[in-house]
Amino acid sequence: MPDALVQFGSIVVLLGGLIFVHELGHFLVAKALGVKVVRFSIGFGPRLFGVTRGETEYRISILPLGGYVKMAGDDPSEVPAPEDRGRGFLEQPPWKRLLIAVAGPASNLLFPAAIYLALALAQNGTPTAGPVVGTVAPGSPADRAGLRPGDRILAVTAPGAAPRPVRYFGDLRDLVSPHAGEPLAFEIEREGQRVAPVTITPSSERESNPIETTERGVIGVTPYYAPALVAPATPGAAGPLQPFDLVVKAGGAPVRNAGDLERALAKAACAPIDLEVVREGTLPMPGAELARYETVALGGVPTCAGEARVIRLADPTVSSFVAAVEPGSPAALAGLRRGDAIVAVNGRPVRSLLRDLPAKDWKPGVPVKLALADGRTIEIVPGRRTVKDEISGKQVDLPVVGFEPDRRVPVDAKALVAAQVPLDRGLGEIAGLAVQQLREVVRITVLGIVRIATGKISFENVGGPLMLFQIAREAAEEGWESFLFKMALISVNLGLMNLLPIPVLDGGHIAQAAVEGVTRRPLSMRAREVANVVGLILLVVLMGFVFKNDIVRFLKPPGE
């Protein structure tokens, strides 16, 4: 029962709150322009209770999902009361009606800015990743320029611009993204000492979401150290060490991440070292195998062969070791095994399994040649799996390969952050970020609406009340920050949809006022009535399709 109340309350707050904000915009502007507001209702249906102040009744109605504003003279089929003459909505000049109609959607577009501002203010003082490099992707621009894990980035200078200080790691995205192919000067602090500026030219990386694909500049760094997940460079080179052992102690000292391990190995100076590792195994069960983990002490583990390190990191961000191969898959049939290190694909070098091996881009039935570190060359012929693309609605063929760069040994994510600093932003900066975030959400939403209208995104992705209920329920379970964030997204959608020039919606009133303002004469009663009927038919048809999508989505079995 409490869960049901929380779920019902979440949809009431989300949908009811957004409609209330929308109607409040109409109410305030109508009052300011001298239009008589007969009723402002929170909720629909029969009146529960309320008060009358001046000429307006303020009421709470029985159905709490939203509300409405009733203005005098807003029904073209009704004759305004004598005392209301001159103050009815339809009697107003076009510019006043346009402002009143715009006020509702505008409120829905401004409300998210207030949410973003509140969320950013609440985050002030909380820890975030500082401008310290954790992982440098092998072969990336940062790697080629000599950037190292543990380096602190102090400032970035673009060609022809002044140096921009870097306070948080997140600042790097804004400073680097617009400059693909342009040399940037990085001011670096290494081991407490400033070093000569490092010049890095960002490469271009394609970034996709369901709405669009863009290109941005990247240098190949993250604020997180790789886990101390290791493997011998070649089988047996590191004695008892096995692929994907997670080092938790080295030389008696605790190891939280690859940075700690690197310091321990450097201190050992190629001498054997005692390690304590967490090792993954399997626990056979009837019809299945369960993963189990055990702590293993390894004494005198070799660290070098000559001057070459034989203990390598096995995390897929910085290595090309294969973590899992599905039995009977194309990869297994080709001879790929857990612990194999891929060094090249069709002649192209592979240094990072996640960065350099986009197996999702392989073509079903098209052979792929893999060169392995042990000297073998194998050929994988990807299988085929046909699925329905959730965005376009079309059938697409996906490759089936059967190996993963996954990491199943449990790792403490907090221990991987290279450095943390408290967020400390002023009100002006936070307000600017809120406006920037709102502008980007509006842009993406408009682009999405256009792509749906042009058929580039399937209409099946559009949802209605059932989807809203599901979103509100899930957001409430995730916490108030997620709830407010999703509330802001839906508010933008509600505001923009109401601006569509469909009679009955605010966009229809805006279009009508604009036409009358240009032609200098009001639309005839017949034209208004026909427009309203057409608008209602369009809304009913639209809601029919939306309800169909909701029902199909609701009845779809999990996992499909």
Strand content: 25-35%
Helix count?
A: 12
What is the CA-atom radius of gyration, in angstroms?
Answer: 31 Å
> Largest sheet, described in full?
6 strands, antiparallel
Total strand count, please?
Answer: 29
N-to-C terminal Cα separation, in Å? Answer: 30 Å
Weakly predicted, low-confidence segments:
none
Shape: elongated
- The helix fraction, in percent, is 25-40%
Average pLDDT: 86
User: Helices and strands: which structural class?
Assistant: alpha+beta
Transmembrane segments: 6-29, 530-547
Organism: Anaeromyxobacter oryzae
Cofactor: Zn(2+)
Protein name: PDZ domain-containing protein
Summarize the structure.
This protein has 560 residues and is α+β, with helices and mostly antiparallel strands.
